[in-house]
Design a protein that fits this description.
Penicillin V Acylase, Chain A, seven-stranded antiparallel beta sheet, 6 helices
Length: about 240
């Protein structure tokens, strides 16, 4: 289980923006480019699965935990994200495939493509997946099913903040990105497995990404991917936030 907030932003500059909130202990910290069925780049999980990513067609995808305790028979969600980006070119294609794939736990996948078509799919173990045209994903689905978890992660408050930003005519891509670097979207409870490990900003137009922290930005594109090693001090990153 993890936290996470994600948003398909299409108002001025189309972007899929997400914060990944989890325990540093279980974070692989590897952002990779592959060329299996098609060029794809994203943040890995379980070696070959993906937490988020973009492919050569500009399809972007990102996952969040769905806030339910129930489990069932199905695939791990990082493999579903990988499958989506390897085999789909548009949000419409992804919807058609993902609606038929079971996940073993409750998760949400938000999609954005180069046509600015977006959707969020709720994966419900033991039940049918649910298609929504929501641009926002946090850590619940249609309603809160795990109240203690919802309170701890502020999932309702985070979704409300992002929904309000979508309705605010003065909001821009730059201003919404700034919100992702501030509470309640940015979290520092690393000891509770609820600290923001990175902010990812995917562009379906450039097929690029910016990975952000309080003190560092890393840019990559599918067309000009460069290998690097970076050390991020998460506690110092959090302290920098708290000092501002």
């Amino acid at each position: 289980m993890s936290g996470c907030s994600q948003l398909a932003w299409v108002k001025d500059v189309p972007l899929l923006i997400r914060n990944y909130d989890y325990s540093p202990r279980y974070f692989e910290g590897a952002f990779v480019k592959t060329n299996w069925l098609k060029p794809v780049m994203g943040m890995t999980d379980c070696n070959w699965g993906l937490l988020d990513g973009v492919n050569e067609d500009g399809l972007c995808a990102s996952l969040t935990f769905g806030g339910r305790r129930i489990t069932g028979i199905g695939f791990g969600i990082p493999l579903i994200v990988r499958y989506c980006l390897e085999t789909c070119s548009t949000t419409a294609e992804a919807i058609e495939k993902l609606m038929e794939i079971p996940a073993h736990m409750a998760y949400n996948i938000t999609l954005l493509d180069a046509n600015l078509d977006y959707a969020t799919i709720f994966f419900v173990p033991g039940g049918p997946n649910q298609l929504t045209r929501m641009a926002v994903g946090t850590n619940h689905q249609n309603e809160v099913n795990w109240s203690d978890y919802a309170i701890m992660t502020q999932t309702v408050e985070r979704r409300a903040l992002l929904d309000a930003a979508l309705l605010n005519p003065a909001e821009t891509a730059d201003s919404i990105i700034h919100k992702f670097l501030q509470p309640p979207l940015f979290n520092t409870a690393y000891e509770k497995a609820f600290g923001t490990l990175y902010t990812a900003i995917y562009s379906p137009v450039t097929k690029g990404v910016t990975l952000m922290w309080q003190s560092k930005k890393i840019h990559q594109t599918l067309g000009d991917f460069k290998e690097h090693k970076h050390k991020i001090k998460l506690r110092a990153n959090a302290n920098r936030l708290l000092a501002t």
